[in-house]
Design brief:
15% of the residues lie in helices and 29% in strands. By secondary structure, the protein is α+β, with helices and mostly antiparallel strands. It is elongated and about 110 Å long.
C-alpha cells in the first residue's frame, strides 16, 4: 500500500503485468487485446475502467500507458480516481488474469504535495494550514520585541522601563478606546510578589476580633498582607482549639487581617471565638 498526501496530483503508478503462465507480459501497447486497468474508490461499489492511451515514460498523462520493461508499465491515474482522505484501489486484467489491487491511501495529514505541514480532518479537508514565519509575524503585530514585553511584565526595576521604553509604549498604546497605564514598578509580577510580602514565620500570634462560620478577623499580625496568605491558623484556646484551614482575604480599616475559613466552623462555636488566641503556621 502506498500512503500519499491527500492533495497529490499527477500520480504515475507502476504496474507489473503477467500472463496466464505467471511470466512477465512484455511489449503490451495501451490497446493490447485483453488488457484493461480499473480503479475503485473506497466509497464506491463498482470498478471504473481507464480509457488507456499511449504515453511517454517519466511524463504524467491522465490514463496514459507506457512500457518500462520486464513486465513493468507506467499508468497515469486520473484526478477522478483520487479519494481524498481515503483509499483508491487499482488493478489490471490481461490474458484472463486479474491482479491483486494496488492500494493508494490519500491521507498523509502532516504534509501536502509540496512537503509543507498541514492539519486535515479524516476526509482530507484542511483544518488549519501550518503557521509560517510571515503568518506568525502578523499575529504578533504591535509587539516590537517579545523579550521586552516579558521583561516589563516580570521585572519591577526602573532600569528595565528605560531600556524597554518602546515596548512599554506598545503595552499602553491606545488601540481605539483609550491608552493603558501599565507601570512595571507597581504592576509587574515581581512588584506584585513583593507587595504581598514573604510567608509569615510559624509561631506569629494574634487575637480573634470577631468571627462568622466562614471568616475570622485577627488583630496583632503586623507583617504585610502576603505574610499570612498560605499559612493555617491554629486556635490556642476556645472551642476550636485545633487547626483551622484559612486563607487571607483582606485587611480592614484598622489593619486587622480577615481570613476565610475552609471549611466553615459550626455556628454554635462562632460566639465564643472572640478573644481567642491564634497562632499562624504550625
Amino acid at each position: 500500500m502506498m500512503r500519499l498526501p491527500f492533495d497529490t496530483t499527477d500520480l504515475m503508478l507502476m504496474l507489473y503485468v503477467t500472463d496466464a503462465s505467471g511470466a512477465a507480459a512484455t511489449g503490451l501497447a495501451h490497446d493490447a487485446s485483453g488488457l484493461s486497468v480499473e480503479y475503485r474508490k473506497d466509497d464506491e461499489s463498482s470498478w471504473t475502467a481507464l480509457s488507456l492511451s499511449a504515453g511517454t515514460l517519466g511524463t504524467y498523462g491522465s490514463e496514459e500507458w507506457v512500457e518500462e520493461g520486464n513486465g513493468a508499465y507506467q499508468v497515469g491515474l486520473p484526478a477522478a480516481a483520487k479519494q481524498a482522505g481515503g483509499f483508491t484501489r487499482v488493478r489490471w486484467t490481461y490474458d484472463g488474469v486479474t491482479s491483486v489491487p494496488e492500494t493508494v491511501w490519500f491521507n498523509a495529514p502532516n504534509i501536502d504535495a509540496s512537503g509543507s505541514a498541514k492539519v486535515v480532518d479524516h476526509e482530507g479537508s484542511t483544518i488549519r494550514a501550518a503557521v509560517d514565519a510571515s503568518t506568525l509575524a502578523g499575529k504578533l503585530a504591535g509587539i516590537g520585541s517579545l523579550g521586552g514585553w516579558l521583561r516589563l511584565l516580570m521585572r519591577k526595576d526602573a532600569a528595565v522601563a528605560t531600556d524597554e521604553a518602546t515596548s512599554l509604549g506598545e503595552i499602553n498604546a491606545d488601540g481605539g478606546s483609550g491608552a493603558g497605564a501599565f507601570d512595571n514598578t507597581t504592576d509587574s509580577t515581581e512588584a506584585v510578589k513583593d507587595g504581598l510580602g514573604s510567608v509569615g514565620t510559624p509561631g506569629d500570634t494574634g487575637t480573634v476580633v470577631s468571627a462568622t462560620t466562614t471568616t475570622v478577623l485577627v488583630s496583632g499580625l503586623a507583617k504585610t498582607d502576603g505574610a499570612y496568605a498560605r499559612q493555617p491558623l491554629r486556635c490556642l484556646t476556645g472551642p476550636r482549639a485545633n487547626l483551622i484551614h484559612a486563607v487571607l482575604t483582606d485587611v480592614d480599616e484598622s489593619g486587622d487581617r480577615r481570613f476565610t475559613i475552609e471549611p466553615p466552623i459550626p455556628s454554635d462555636d462562632v460566639a465564643s471565638m472572640a478573644g481567642v488566641s491564634v497562632k499562624v503556621g504550625g
